[in-house]
């Protein structure tokens, strides 16, 4: 039976190793709590889901003349939302307790997300300028689109935010990590 050896000056004792492992586990738990606090409150998803439905469905029920005020109103609310998210009090009012540090966001994720947004914006502008007529009349298509998009935001908004935050980080959050000995 091998004898237990005495720790040298460079080797931690069993107590020190246990305390270090516990400290790393505590750090990992706090990091997980911070990542969980990055999402907005549920009511924000519901409000924007209902507003998305209302803006898209309004022309089907009130005529195309309402887009003259619904689209700018929705745009103003979206800009107000972004401005509030970038202030401490605004974020607290919207129920967002924490934000990811910019240094934690992967450069590749930032590049890909900007390119996707640029392509979508360009496609939207091109579609609006060209206004193609496909010759197919689908009644209440805007209302159907509003139900799908607004419903997705209401039902899956929080999950989508958490998934984006998780994929945006340089080191995706997992339940275990190499820091606390789990792979």
UniProtKB/TrEMBL annotation:
Basic and acidic residues composition-biased segments: 1-18
Annotated TM spans: 40-57, 69-87, 108-128, 140-158
Region (Disordered): 1-22
Key words, A-Z: Membrane, Transmembrane, Transmembrane helix
Keyword Transmembrane helix: yes
Name of this protein: Integral membrane protein
Record lineage: Bacteria, Bacillati, Actinomycetota, Actinomycetes, Kitasatosporales
């Amino acid at each position: 039976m091998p004898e237990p050896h005495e720790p040298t000056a460079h080797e931690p004792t069993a107590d020190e190793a246990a305390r270090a492992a516990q400290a790393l586990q505590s750090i990992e738990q706090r990091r997980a709590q911070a990542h969980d606090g990055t999402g907005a409150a549920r009511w924000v998803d519901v409000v924007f889901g209902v507003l998305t439905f209302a803006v898209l469905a309004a022309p089907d029920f009130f005529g195309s003349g309402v887009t003259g005020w619904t689209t700018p109103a929705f745009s103003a609310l979206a800009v107000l939302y972004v401005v509030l998210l970038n202030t401490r009090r605004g974020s607290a009012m919207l129920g967002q307790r924490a934000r990811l540090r910019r240094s934690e966001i992967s450069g590749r994720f930032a590049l890909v997300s900007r390119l996707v947004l640029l392509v979508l914006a360009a496609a939207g502008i091109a579609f609006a300028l060209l206004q193609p007529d496909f010759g197919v009349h689908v009644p209440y298509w805007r209302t159907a689109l509003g139900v799908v998009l607004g419903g997705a935001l209401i039902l899956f908004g929080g999950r989508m935010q958490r998934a984006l935050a998780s994929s945006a980080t340089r080191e995706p959050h997992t339940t275990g990590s190499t820091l606390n000995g789990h792979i």
